[in-house]
Amino acid sequence: MSRIGKNPITIPNGVTVNYANNQITVKGPKGELQIAVHSRIKVELTDGIIQVNRKSESKTDRSLHGLSRTLIANMVEGVTKGYEKKLEIIGVGYRAAIQGSKLTLSLGFSHPIEFTAPQGVTISIDAEKKNLLTISGTDKQMIGEVAAKIRSYKKPEPYKGKGIRYLGEHIIRKAGKAAAKDK
Q: Which end of the chain has less Cβ packing within 10 Å, N or C?
């Protein structure tokens, strides 16, 4: 039995869950999410608890069991609390600006990079630290994809550490030519 898959998911107050035709829909105070559940997985809704079970002990069913339970739990948490990722822009002259849902990044290229946030994702810049981006929304997967896409425009380089990194990410630094030459 999957350790993750066998854990029940409690539905908090203010959240409604509907399951029909292998589609599960979760509505909460922050929004609505839906996902298609694999046909090999059974979802049972009883008394504010979601229980995820599998139909057999095959390898495919076992692998889908924990995955399905985690995806549903992430949906419930997303519509109640939401998710956020923080990115830090490091470099002289590197900056970000927001106009509506469009993010404009100046990252040392000859042109500014414009990124339009998908629906359900909000991007904000910290008022005190102008180099701190906050990406928030209800869908955990979408937040991760948007953060990775923005980070991919200028990944942190190993010599000076300039670029876009996740807040708290440790970059392994390399010694430059001058330091290697002295040895």
A: C
Collapsing DSSP to helix, strand or coil, 92 comes out as coil
| CATH number for the domain running over 83-166 | 3.90.930.12
State the DSSP code for 115. Answer: E
Backbone angles phi and psi of 159, in degrees to 5? -90, -50
Spatial separation of the C-alpha atoms in residues 62 and 25, rounded to whole Å: 23
Q: Give residue 35's pLDDT.
A: 95
Helix (H/G/I), strand (E/B), else coil: 53: strand
Task: Band the pLDDT of 101: cuts 50, 70, 90.
Answer: confident
Q: What is the largest CA-CA distance in the chain?
A: 70
**pTM of the entire predicted model:** 0.87
24-68 confidence digits (pLDDT tens): 999 999 999 999 999 999 999 998 999 999 998 889 999 899 999
Q: Which helix (H) or strand (E) holds 41?
A: strand 41-46
Question: In terms of CATH architecture, what is 9-80?
Answer: Alpha-Beta Complex (3.90)
Same fold, 9-80 and 83-166: yes
Q: Among 108, 120, 113, 125, which residue's Cα sits nearest to residue 150?
A: 113
Question: For the chain, what's the residue count?
Answer: 183
